[in-house]
Specification:
This protein is mostly helical. Helix content is 78%, strand content 9%. It is built from 1 helix and 2 strands; from the N terminus they run E-E-H. The chain has a two-stranded antiparallel sheet.
C-alpha cells in the first residue's frame, strides 16, 4: 500500500512512490514489447518451417514419380 494520504476517497501518492510506480510501469512495458517481438519471431520461424516442410514434400513427390 502506498504511504500517501486519503482526501475525499482519493489516495495521493508520495513522490517516491510515484517514481517507483512509473519505473515499474516502464519496465513492464519494455518486457511486454520484448514478448511481442519474440512472439512475432516465433510466428515467422513457424511459417518458414512450414514452407520448408511443404517444399520437401513436393520434392519427395517429384522424385518418387520420376522413377
Amino acid at each position: 500500500m502506498y504511504k500517501g494520504q486519503i482526501f475525499g476517497g482519493v489516495v495521493t501518492m508520495s513522490k517516491s512512490d510515484l517514481i517507483k510506480t512509473v519505473k515499474k510501469a516502464i519496465i513492464l512495458a519494455d518486457a511486454l514489447e520484448n514478448a511481442v517481438k519474440i512472439s512475432h519471431a516465433i510466428d515467422d520461424l513457424s511459417e518458414g518451417i512450414e514452407e520448408i516442410e511443404k517444399s520437401l514434400r513436393l520434392s519427395k513427390k517429384n522424385y518418387s514419380t520420376k522413377e
